Amino acid sequence: ITLVPYRFNMEQIEQIAEEIIPQIG
User: Fold this and answer.
1) Where are the domains of the chain?
2) What is the pLDDT along the chain (25 residues), one digit of tens a residue?
3) Are the C-beta atoms of 16 and 8 separated by less than 8 Å?
């Protein structure tokens, strides 16, 4: 999720977060 979150839907943000957050944490 970059400086343009409006390009993404909430569902897409959740899916991306589920993929990215575990890698960071």
Assistant:
1) 1-25
2) 566 656 667 888 888 889 888 876 6
3) yes
